[in-house]
UniProtKB/TrEMBL annotation:
SUPFAM superfamilies (alphabetical): Rhodanese/Cell cycle control phosphatase
One Pfam family recorded for the sequence: Rhodanese
Originating organism: Paenibacillus abyssi
Domain Rhodanese: 13-94
Name used for this protein in its record: Rhodanese domain-containing protein
Amino acid sequence: MYPKEFVRLYQSPHFEGHIIDVREEWEFHKVKLLGSVSIPLRHLPERLDSLRPSEMYYIICSQGIRSSFAAEYLLESGYTDLRVIQTGIFGLCEYVEHEFGTVPWIIKE
């Protein structure tokens, strides 16, 4: 899923699902989406019990590579309703800043 589609869904009053950010904690604290949860990719196996296979998850990282690995792992673990945010937080921020300027739901350090 590319930023344009994600933003359309995220801004909808009917947005459903959870946002998992698989970047490292220090990356997450620099810039994050309001409502996202930090689960670094290396900690995903030990945090699986905090997730529900029946829920929808949007997965984001810095550029889309780690989130693809996370989605593959979750699929292998029985999760089916997954969306990888292509271009990651960098591409998302670039798109949002170009289209909307500053928004309150992108939190920067």
